[in-house]
Structures are given as structure tokens and as C-alpha cells.
Design brief:
Layout: H1 7-10, E1 19-23, H2 35-43, E2 46-49, H3 52-61, E3 68-70, H4 76-88, E4 92-96, H5 109-117, E5 122-125, H6 130-138, E6 145-150, H7 155-163, E7 171-176, H8 181-192, E8 196-201, E9 209-214, H9 215-223, E10 232-237, H10 244-261, H11 266-277, H12 281-297
Parallel strand pairs: 1-4, 1-5, 2-3, 2-4, 6-7
Antiparallel strand pairs: 7-10, 8-9, 8-10
Helix pairs in contact: 4-5, 7-8, 8-9, 10-11, 10-12, 11-12
Length: 298
């Protein structure tokens, strides 16, 4: 496909003479890109891509022949100074990620930070974002909402991460990979309780789907799938208070565990705590692991 923008549209697209342009690209469907984004990508001196092999498909589809440069977290320290030098010479650079809006769980923060330090103009060319595209289809409260990105891969780190949102009142949005989906759903169920939730998969793509229901039902659904594939957006309704037993569990749980851990093994302390508070033993055991980890860090 050759890039062709109607003249009447071009009249309303104002392109700055130079600067860093943060350009949003499709999250799946190649048609989901703005005219301004196409015009910008065609006019800048360089396109900084998270992965040039991925971006090549989009650029070729629209007949954009602008020079590209790989830019990601692993080469940022080397490439950032080079890009800043170009920008300092009044050249224009577009920053794009593999999909969606740059910096949103994607590379780009270091480059933006460096550009600001050098008083280089920065412009946002808005467009697709999996966060918002997923949120509006969930049927859950739209605000307040909190986007937390990807969960940590390691068990203890993920527990700490999720526990930090226990007091948030609104819809929590997470990104997750197929390999960690079941672990994350299990942890969310144990930490937040059985909340109304939604899981969006492959947004805007051929196999797009949104499953809605309680966390326990969604966990059971995906446990039955032999090979989980796709990219996932998880939305969890934390807008209402859990029952009183869940609210007192977190504070009381730590206190009770500490008392038992003074003279019992971790496993036995978790069992006694769970029986005393009337909570799942797995929840008590996970918190005991967190306590041990925090003590080891001191």
C-alpha cells in the first residue's frame, strides 16, 4: 500500500520543524493508525523502532521509506546520546514501539528524559493503546483506574507487587504474558478475593476476545485451555470494599504470623495462622514467604 493522504487532511496536519515525536502505532490491526501518525512517519529524518523487523511490516504496508534505527532498553545507553545529538542539530525523530503507545510498558522513557534535559521539543502523536482499548470493553468501572503494567515474573516479587494495590479503589489494569497468566490470576484471586474481572486477548486482531466474570471463573476457564496464546489485558474491579474478614486479614495476618514464627516452622506457622483467622492456608503461606523475604533483605 502506498501512503496517500488527502490534501484537505494535510492542511490540518501541522508538523513541527524538528523535535522528538512520540508516535502511537496499531496494536494489531494495521488500519488503526491516524493520518497524522502516517504523515509524521513519512516526514521525519529518522524513526527509532523497538524492533525494526516488526515495524518494517507497518512501514512497508503504508509505503513509508524513512530510515530506521533500533532503539530498546538494552541499547538505550548507547543509542540515546546519538539520537540526542541528531535532535540537537534540529533534526526530527519519531519514536515508535512494536505496538501501541511508546513508553506504556515499552521503551522510550530514557530518551524522553534526555530530550527534556536538553530542552528539545517533544510532541505526542496519539493513537492506539491496549490499556484504554481493553478497559472500555470490560464493563467494569472506567474511573478511577490504575494501570500497573506487567506483573513481575518471580513469585515473591509478584506477591509484593499485587499486595501494594490492596487499598486501591477502582479498576486495576494489568498486562500479562501467556506463560504467566495462570500464576497471576491465581495470585490475584488469593490477594484481592473473588472480584468481577475481565480478560481481553488479542485486542483488534483476528482472534480478539473478551471474557468477563469472577476471577475464580476466569481462572477455571483458562486452566482448561491446553496452550494459552496471545497478549492479555487483565482488568479487576477493586472499586468496592471486600468483606470484613478480607479487610482485617492483611494487618492481622502479618501480626499473627510473626507471633507463630517465633517458635514454629514457616509451614506450621502458616497453617496455625490460617486456622485461627479462617483464611485459606495458601494465603497465609504466601504472606509467610513474603515476611521471610523481607527479613532476609534487611
Amino acid at each position: 500500500m502506498t501512503l496517500s493522504i488527502p490534501a484537505i487532511c494535510l492542511e490540518n496536519i501541522k508538523t513541527a520543524p524538528y523535535g522528538l515525536f512520540i508516535v502511537s502505532t496499531p496494536i494489531g490491526n494495521l488500519a488503526d493508525i491516524t493520518l497524522r501518525a502516517l504523515h509524521t512517519l513519512n516526514q521525519v529524518d529518522l524513526i527509532a523502532c523497538e524492533d525494526t523487523r516488526v515495524s518494517k511490516k507497518l512501514l512497508q504496508y503504508y509505503g513509508i521509506k524513512t530510515k530506521t534505527q533500533t532503539y530498546h532498553d538494552h541499547n538505550a545507553e548507547i543509542i540515546t546520546p546519538l539520537l540526542i545529538e541528531m535532535l540537537s542539530q534540529k533534526q526530527s525523530i519519531a519514536l515508535i514501539s512494536d505496538a501501541g503507545t511508546p513508553l506504556i510498558s515499552d521503551p522510550g522513557y530514557k530518551l524522553v528524559e534526555a530530550a527534556i534535559a536538553q530542552n528539545i521539543p517533544i510532541y505526542s502523536i496519539p493513537g492506539p493503546s491496549a490499556v484504554l482499548a481493553g478497559l472500555v470493553t470490560t464493563g467494569l468501572p472506567q474511573y478511577p483506574m490504575l494501570f500497573a503494567g506487567f506483573t513481575p515474573s518471580k513469585f515473591v516479587a509478584r506477591q509484593k507487587f499485587l499486595y501494594s494495590f490492596q487499598k486501591f479503589k477502582g479498576t486495576l489494569i494489568l498486562f500479562e504474558s501467556p506463560a504467566r497468566l495462570l500464576n497471576s490470576l491465581t495470585d490475584c484471586l488469593n490477594i484481592f478475593g473473588d472480584r468481577p474481572s475481565a480478560i481481553c486477548r488479542e485486542i483488534t486482531k483476528i482472534f480478539e476476545e473478551t471474557n468477563r466474570g469472577l476471577l475464580s471463573n476466569l481462572l477455571q476457564l483458562y486452566q482448561k485451555i491446553p496452550a494459552i496464546k496471545g497478549e492479555f489485558v487483565i482488568a479487576i474491579d477493586l472499586s468496592y470494599s471486600a468483606d470484613i474478614s478480607t479487610e482485617i486479614t492483611q494487618e492481622k495476618l502479618v501480626e499473627t504470623l510473626k507471633n507463630y514464627l517465633q517458635h514454629l516452622s514457616l509451614k506450621e506457622a502458616a497453617r496455625q495462622t490460617a486456622d485461627e483467622l479462617g483464611i485459606p492456608r495458601k494465603t497465609a503461606y504466601q504472606q509467610a514467604l513474603l515476611l521471610r523475604e523481607s527479613c532476609a533483605d534487611k
